Amino acid sequence: MRALDEVLRADAPGHHAERFEKAWACTGCGACRALCLLDNPVADTLFDGRADAFANDLAPPAVKAFLRDEAATDGARRRARASLDAEGATHATLRYMPGCAEADARPEQVRDAAEAVGLLGRCGCGVSAEVCCGAKLHDAGDRLGLLAQARRFAESVRGVETLVVGDADCLAVLRSVYPRLGVTLPKVEHLSEFAEAHLDRLGAVEAPPRVVWHDPCKLGRGLGVYDAPRRVLSAVLGRPVGEAENHRDKALCSGGGGLVPLTRPETAREIAAMALAELAQGGDTVVVVGCASSRARFAEAGAAVEDFATWVLRGARAGAQRP
User: Fold this and answer.
1) How far apart are CA 273 and CA 285, in angstroms?
2) pTM (two decimals)
3) Mind listing the pLDDT tens digit for each residue in 155-170?
């Protein structure tokens, strides 16, 4: 806090940049606030401190390198993602928005999620993937970059009535950060909220003996969305979804948020291992996630992990086949 105060007083020499690195050591999971009797917003304070430090050119080298790479590859990525918006579906008033990691690495997952939304909504569903929402810019502390990106994103979804979001980190930025920037969006829902509104259109499918839901930090503690994913998964499983010992507001972080895998990779791995030790206890377990960064952390640790969207599609297809 003293180091961040120096930034605010414009008394922070550049060669002491390493003193500010701890501001980027937080995943933003919010567990500290959930456990604090005084409800202290520790993560919010640290992320504000990041932005102040970033504005003074005091971001860690790994963060600067990440943003340079993102800027250098933006055009190519946008062209590649354009193929996800097949047959003019970008004009649909109902759209699915994936996280960047999902759009870049698993385009088939994006198409599956859009199919699920279309089946549940019983209408055409487009995909909004070309323009990033800027969640990583927020994590980096780049206020000006985030504002510019938010305006571009808002323009890209002009005319949309409902935007269904698959990644919890993106949803948190769209719902919590954009309003503070004065950027207006259409109705924004997490995939679990959209699917919950159409539970009667989901069918039960065969499933492994133990399927456990991992509460994404930004969806649960961040936005208070706990019940919707549980109700949807239970409908698709035909039984209550499994729970870790620590769940809902006590759920363990996956270590994937806040750019911590870049700034402190070993810490990110340790956090993921701790969460998985609890989630996967009791043998053969499938961990269902609603967050792209959690999926990456858990998969790297060797877990059997699947996206929430995969289960929604299975349930939507089963429901569509009923008489």
Assistant:
1) 15
2) 0.91
3) 999 999 999 999 999 9
